[in-house]
Amino acid sequence: MTHTQERLNEILPERRDGTISSVIIMPERMEFETQNPNERVFIMLRGHIATNLSWIITGVFFSIIPPIILYVLSLMQIDFETIPFFRDSYVVVAIMLWYLLVFTSSFMKFLDWYFNLYVITSERVLDFDFSAFAYHKISEASLDNIVDATQESIGFLPMFFNYGDVYIQTAGERREFDFLSVPKPSWVRDKIMDLRNLMVKHPV
Predict the structure, then answer these.
(1) In a shared domain, residues 85 and 21
(2) Residue span of the structural domain in which 72 resides
């Protein structure tokens, strides 16, 4: 085992894996379009899973609205069959359309979270920006262009769940990279700088 590999094992002793994990260390199956032949992926990040709470709660709230409305209407004991737009067939179609919209909106939010990735490789850091059915953008900066990294956690939820933003200062054309709402931001900041120092001095 080379000195570089030994040092790499010290920097990344843990291994976290899983399809929907927020932190994946040394992902075995990850490849991307612009990856170089000998380029290794060290860390893959996405937003902390707690950042999904808002759209999950919203989806649940809108999902329970139809049964609540139907229950309230049943308590009113009104014969809605005499009202054209309250016939059973119309109600069923309206409910199906409602749930389709709720599911589609929630699924698009999930896709945005799942495919917005931050990647640290043996050569660079990459920011994959994805918006469902809208755009896909990749930004990158070489490790040797990284000057500094800072982290910030503001608010109750970030402090409680231990997530926050990591700002990477570079000497390249794009001066700053933002890793937003990532888990354990202080850990991420330290690993970025450790890997940067190691790869600049001892490339893999």
Answers:
(1) no
(2) 53-110
pLDDT digits over 82-133, tens only?
666 666 677 788 899 999 999 999 999 999 999 999 999 999 999 998 887 7
- Checking if the pLDDT of 138 tops 80, the result is yes
Residues 155 and 190 in one domain: yes
Same domain, 89 and 138: no
Report the domain count for the chain: 2
**pLDDT tens digits, one per residue of 142-179:** 998 899 999 999 999 999 999 999 999 988 666 778 99
41 and 127 together in one domain? yes
**35-72 per-position pLDDT tens digit:** 888 899 999 999 999 999 999 999 999 999 999 988 88
Secondary structure of the chain in HEC code, one letter for each residue: CCHHHHHHHHHCCCCCCCCCCCEEECCCCCCCCCCCCCCCEEEEECCCHHHHHHHHHHHHHHHCHHHHHHHHHHHHCCCHHHCHHHCHHHHHHHHHHHHHHHHHHHHHHHHHHHHCEEEEECCEEEEEEEECCCEEEEEEEEHHHEEEEEEECCCHHHHHHCEEEEEEEECCCCCEEEEEEEECHHHHHHHHHHHHHHHHHCCC
Are residues 168 and 75 part of one domain? no
